[in-house]
Task: inverse folding
């Protein structure tokens, strides 16, 4: 099976890594290797050019150069409709379009339980959240909580874990090998579905408490605070100290570009002790990299819990669909040792698929697809109200975390992502977001109050693509204003500024966000 | 010499001031003529699709009026005939946003057939599932839970199919309309895996007197509504390409190079990403009979074959209609040949080679080994036949790229005509 394009690029990458590692080994010895970032050398001229183009603007009278294309040359300029998040990087060659389309086919693919007549597509579950990738990443966009009681069409689930129970578990967390200690019976997430003959683990329940917020102009916004529970437990009681973290499926656009932001650059924005005293710390998450068997910078997921798209994809297919993959070869997915029937169920591991259910080739194609979903072009960026809103966004301090723009590395994993000026509005760092948003569930270095700055690109198309405007990690915000008002902790000062805005300024701010 | 040339040119201009456009605008006119051929073929193709869909409608009416093996066979035959012109229009999808936006109603695939009618539980599964209306079975249920809301489905009509069920809950596999929904109703599930045989729905599934599988009146209503909807949708597309139609006007009044890019994008994207990739190679890689475009009827070989014929039609500017008449005119091939004869020859040869590989696939299917068997695990010979098709499509795409270069279009973004009005700078 040909997968020339990406293999070639990966080959080049591993050579670059290998030679850099060799240099590092000589220079600082193997002990420092684990945390050693791969640094791309930029000439002083290039660094200066990049610094100039990525400096935040102070001119709000007109759009900036290149601002219309938030994904650089990879930006999609296709019509703005329900498919706006489903296009390939615009700078992709025909040659690679084949792999993108096959990846799309795999992304949509409905998996079936084993045994079945098709050895190639079986292995679902036994416990699962979805039968296909696309079922949660609806239209490659943003998931949502149940619209109302009885709505089973959800695209979110509960992550589960417990605090460390003994020295061995504490050591596993300290070494970075584990990001969380799984709930002993239910594992790291609640699978609300199961194949025939198996019990689902349970059902997420949500009730809401109302939380009124009065803005400076007297407007009252009533936030809905969700309170989560689990009903219909299928495998006995939960651990008394279980920690729940609700997560909606995040949009799939621009992920490859985020993967191509230099580690050193992300690290340079971190200010864990708030040395500059601006009230904003910003920390890097360090998570286990299955490929290198060492800690690495976390980039993906609501708490930056995954270091790469390859690993993110493998963990999702393993935990959410219940498939084995080369890096996670257990066919039972998130089955725990006490879920015996789950472990003993027939599986779809087969020799022609590398001894697993989702072969190396399938994973490579799914990863390639995930890397190349294009960010749509901006709309209305020269509209006076949008420009005014941009000024409010900048001057309220939002850009301290929602960093507007970067230039990606040249030696990116995919050629489409190489050296692009991108506008994700995120620093990819963890920030304390206050008690209101806290899930109380640490993940690797991220505390129970910290979340990764969510990229904002494409956020204004959520309604067009997904038919809703539910935001934040659990979709609690019912519109963009509610999402802003949920910010706290390090974002409290910025939030206060938004609360104090006149209606005109607030409307402008929201118009700017909708143009992203 | 120079003086003489200038004098001759002046004389020529003096003699025929209106008839001698400058060289550049002469090329422009030629491009316009090529675009006109393209629009004419689109119009004829959609008109043929409509004509054959009306025959299908008649056959469906007869089936519903008197269900029998004969009337069912006639309806199936009419469906297969309707696919011949329609598949030749698929090349218009990519590069023409107006077609791409519309296409999902007519040719969406794959579909979760359990949404529509009864399915075999052993192979389909009925477990509590991620697609809540995966086994909703509209035909058997007068009330449906869609997005947690109870929907009244007591009357099966065009509005229920198009507005409530199609892509319900944002799940693209909830296909309620179009050719493949009709195909499922005419054939039923193909339960033969990679073994021989297509779907085998009995005619009595539509019989109110001797009804099999229940709800035959509702099944007939569904088939009727889906077929009528197909006619409506095709009428819309015919009008868009008719003289004065929006798609034709948009193409002919816009930038000529943008139009040529739309043509070549359609050829390239259908050949490579869509056909070679998503529709063929994925199934071959997985050896999965479900990864078959016309899976209920086992008509996939023809579906692919006529897609390729559509690519050839666009390049050569010639389309043979279902009545045997030919629509033709100045072509992309003429334009490329004028610039570089070898590139034109190469692309023609590649298109022919792919057609030959497709023909081998069709002949194998006609000898009794269906497409889903050809992609089956362990069928080395069948796999090779399909792999040759993929190879042909890949090769022809490389030549399409060369044609783009020869026509000096490669400097323009090769992603879609919609992006061409507004070329924006990129930081480099």
Result:
């Amino acid at each position: 099976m040909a997968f020339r394009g990406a293999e070639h690029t990966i080959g080049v990458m591993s050579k670059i890594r290998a030679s850099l590692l060799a240099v590092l080994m000589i220079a600082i010895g193997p002990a420092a290797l684990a945390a050693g970032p791969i640094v791309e050398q930029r000439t002083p001229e290039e660094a200066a050019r990049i610094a100039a183009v990525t400096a935040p603007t102070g001119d709000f009278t007109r759009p900036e150069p290149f601002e219309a294309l938030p994904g650089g040359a990879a930006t999609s300029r296709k019509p703005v409709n329900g498919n706006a998040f489903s296009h390939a990087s615009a700078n992709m060659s025909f040659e690679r379009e084949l792999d993108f389309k096959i990846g799309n086919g795999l992304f949509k693919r409905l998996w079936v339980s084993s045994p079945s007549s098709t050895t190639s597509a079986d292995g679902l579950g036994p416990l699962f959240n979805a039968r296909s990738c696309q079922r949660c990443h609806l239209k490659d966009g943003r998931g949502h909580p149940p619209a109302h009681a009885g709505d089973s069409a959800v695209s979110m689930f509960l992550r589960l874990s417990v605090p460390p129970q003994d020295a061995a578990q504490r050591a596993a967390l300290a070494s970075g090998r584990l990001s969380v200690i799984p709930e002993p019976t239910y594992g790291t997430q609640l699978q609300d579905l199961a194949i025939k003959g198996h019990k689902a683990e349970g059902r997420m329940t949500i009730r809401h408490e109302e939380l009124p917020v009065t803005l400076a102009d007297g407007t009252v916004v009533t936030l809905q605070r969700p309170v989560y529970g689990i009903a219909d437990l299928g495998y006995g009681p939960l651990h008394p100290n279980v920690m729940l973290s609700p997560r909606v499926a995040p949009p799939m656009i621009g992920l490859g570009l985020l993967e191509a932001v230099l580690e050193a650059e992300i690290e340079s924005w971190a200010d864990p002790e708030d040395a500059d005293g601006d009230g904003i710390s910003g920390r890097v998450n360090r998570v286990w990299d299955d490929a290198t068997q060492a800690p690495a910078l976390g980039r993906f997921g609501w708490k930056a819990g995954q270091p790469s798209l390859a690993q993110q994809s493998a963990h999702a297919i393993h935990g959410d669909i219940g498939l084995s993959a080369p890096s996670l070869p257990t066919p039972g997915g998130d089955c725990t040792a006490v879920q015996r029937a789950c472990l003993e169920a027939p599986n779809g591991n087969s020799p022609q698929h590398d001894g697993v259910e989702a072969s190396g080739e399938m994973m490579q194609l799914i990863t390639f697809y995930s890397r190349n979903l294009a960010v749509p072009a901006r709309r209305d960026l020269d509209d006076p109200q949008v420009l005014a809103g941009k000024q409010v966004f900048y001057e309220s301090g939002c850009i301290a975390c929602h960093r507007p723009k970067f230039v990606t590395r040249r030696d990116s994993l995919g050629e489409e992502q190489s050296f692009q000026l991108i506008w994700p509005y995120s620093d990819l760092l963890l920030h304390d977001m206050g008690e209101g948003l806290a899930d109380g569930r640490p993940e690797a270095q991220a505390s129970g109050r910290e979340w990764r700055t969510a990229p904002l690109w494409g956020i204004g198309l959520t309604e067009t693509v997904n038919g809703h405007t539910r935001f934040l990690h659990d979709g609690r915000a019912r519109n963009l204003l509610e999402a802003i008002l949920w910010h706290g902790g390090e974002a409290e000062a910025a939030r206060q500024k938004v609360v104090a805005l006149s209606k005109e300024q607030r409307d402008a701010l929201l118009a700017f966000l909708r143009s992203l | 010499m120079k003086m003489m040339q200038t004098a001759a040119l002046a004389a020529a201009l003096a003699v025929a001031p209106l008839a001698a456009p400058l060289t550049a605008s002469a090329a422009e006119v030629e491009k316009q003529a090529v675009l006109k051929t393209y629009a004419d073929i689109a119009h004829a193709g959609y008109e043929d699709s409509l004509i054959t869909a009306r025959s299908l409608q008649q056959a469906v009416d007869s089936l519903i009026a008197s269900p029998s093996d004969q009337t069912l066979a006639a309806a199936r035959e009419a469906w297969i005939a309707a696919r011949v012109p329609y598949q030749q229009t698929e090349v218009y999808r990519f590069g023409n946003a107006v077609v791409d936006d519309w296409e999902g109603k007519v040719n969406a695939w794959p579909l979760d057939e359990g949404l529509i009618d009864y399915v075999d539980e052993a192979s389909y599964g009925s477990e509590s599932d991620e697609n809540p209306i995966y086994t909703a079975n509209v035909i058997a249920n007068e009330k449906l839970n869609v997005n947690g809301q109870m929907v009244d489905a007591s009357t099966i009509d065009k509005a229920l199919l198009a507005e409530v069920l199609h892509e319900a809950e944002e799940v693209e596999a909830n296909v309620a309309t179009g050719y493949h929904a009709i195909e499922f109703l005419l054939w039923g599930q193909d339960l033969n895996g990679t073994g021989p045989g297509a779907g085998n729905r009995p005619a009595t599934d539509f019989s109110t007197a001797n009804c099999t599988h229940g709800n035959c009146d509702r099944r007939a209503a569904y088939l009727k509504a889906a077929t009528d909807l197909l006619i409506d949708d095709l009428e819309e597309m015919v009008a868009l390409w008719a003289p004065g139609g929006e798609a034709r006007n948009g193409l002919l009044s816009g930038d000529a190079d943008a139009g040529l890019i739309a043509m070549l994008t359609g050829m390239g994207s259908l050949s490579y990403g869509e056909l070679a990739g998503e529709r063929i190679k994925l199934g071959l890689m997985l050896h999965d009979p479900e990864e078959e475009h016309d899976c209920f009827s086992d008509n996939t070989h023809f579906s692919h074959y006529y897609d390729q014929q559509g690519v050839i039609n666009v390049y050569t500017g010639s389309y043979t209609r279902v009545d045997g008449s030919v629509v033709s005119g100045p072509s992309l091939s003429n334009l490329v040949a004028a610039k570089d004869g070898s590139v034109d020859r190469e692309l023609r040869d590649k298109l022919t080679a792919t057609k030959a590989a497709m023909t081998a696939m069709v002949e194998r299917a006609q000898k009794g080994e269906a497409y889903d068997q050809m992609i089956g695990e362990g069928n080395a010979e069948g796999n090779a036949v399909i792999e040759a098709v993929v190879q042909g499509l890949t090769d022809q795409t490389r030549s399409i790229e060369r044609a783009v270069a020869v026509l000096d279009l490669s400097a323009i973004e090769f992603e879609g005509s919609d992006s061409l009005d507004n070329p924006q700078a990129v930081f480099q």
